[in-house]
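Q: Can I see a sequence and its folded structure?
A: Here is a first one.
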Amino acid sequence: MKRILLAEDEDVLRMLIVDTLEDEDYTVDEAPDGEEALQLIEKHDYDLIILDYMMPIMTGLEVIQKVRANDAKKHLKILMLSAKNQASEQNYILEVGADYFMAKPFSPLALLDKVGDILDED
């Protein structure tokens, strides 16, 4: 079973995403902020990390930078979610180290399709 970390500070959106992913038999760990996400990344191995861009304590970009600086974790696949969907912002997010980008708002089924595509690359 594939294990995913979801870091999203909006409770309702986080619950919706977790329910959607768990309905498809993914194991999902949750973090309400970047700092907790980083702690979970240090403790567990994930097949995919889904990060919100704007989170309290530590942004998704800061989490990416720390993950990419860690030799043991820099291989992890990262999908960034953001309402900042201008092309220049998307390019910056990818340059910082995200592997994939998805603009908010999105449908849960579109996210599920994206996650399936990413995890099928293995």
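Q: Show me another, different protein.
A: A second, unrelated one:
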Amino acid sequence: MSENYKFFQNKKCEYFPCHKVENEEEFNCLFCYCPLYMLKDKCGGNFKYTNGFKNCSDCTIPHTKNSHEYMMSKMSVVSKIGSERE
């Protein structure tokens, strides 16, 4: 069974790769904008707060070759937060 939907690269992007990595061939652009950003300190990534904003520039979790499985494992938490009423 093909699983090509789990990996995508856009080498024509002017920011490719947007993070420093050892192997550009395994850099995954599928989650260009991390869907876990809203989880704050529960995302599991390597981030820091800079001037009150979450800075994910040192995090490569969304861009690893196998990031799809990790992202999908966190989607129930994202859905729960997204469905909460204010």
